[in-house]
Amino acid sequence: MTKYLIGIDEAGRGPLAGPVTVGVVSVPIDFDWSLLPGVGDSKQTSPAKRELIFKQATHLREEGELNFQVVSSSHLIIDDKGIVFAIKRAMKRGLEKLQLDPRYCQVLLDGSLRAPSEFINQQTIIKGDATEPAIGLASILAKVTRDRFMTKIAQNPELLPYDLASHKGYGTKKHCESIRQYGLSNIHRKTFCTNLLK
Question: Among candidates 24, 15, 21, which has minimal Cα distance to 115?
C-alpha cells in the first residue's frame, strides 16, 4: 500500500560554476497542497515567492506534515565523474536521509531523472515540475538552496570579478566574458568551460 509520495528535481544541471543540487520531498499520499499555495516550477516562480515557499515547507517539516532533504554534489564531483553521476549521487543521499521503505513510496521525478532501482513504483514526467506539486516543491527547495550557496560564495574576494550572485553560475554573456578575461576560478566546472578557453 502506498503511504508516501516522493517528488524529486534538480537545480544547476547546466551552469558553468558551482554544484548541482537535488531536492527530495516526501509527503503523505493524502497531503493537503493548499498548505503550500503557489507551488510549481521554480523557474516560473519569483525568487521572493520561492523563499516564502521554502520557509513554509520548513515550518511544515517541523510540524511533521512533510519531510524533505536537499543534497548537493560539488563542481569537483561533476568534473571528475560527470553531471549524471553527480545528480544520481545527490539523489541517492537525499533518499537515504529520508529513511523511507521503497515498498510504500510512489516516486515522481522530473525530466530524465531516475530513482534507484529499489523504488519500483516510480514515474519520470517531462516538465513534471509544472504539473506535479511534489516535483514542483522539490524544484523550489533545490533552487533556493543552490541560489543561497552561490550568493554566499560570490562574496569571496577571488570570486568578485565573476558576479556569481547575479547569474548563479549560469553561462550568461557577462559570465562568459569574465571567464575569458580572468580565467577559471576554484568554483568553476572545468569540463563545462573548455570551449571558452580556446
Answer: 24
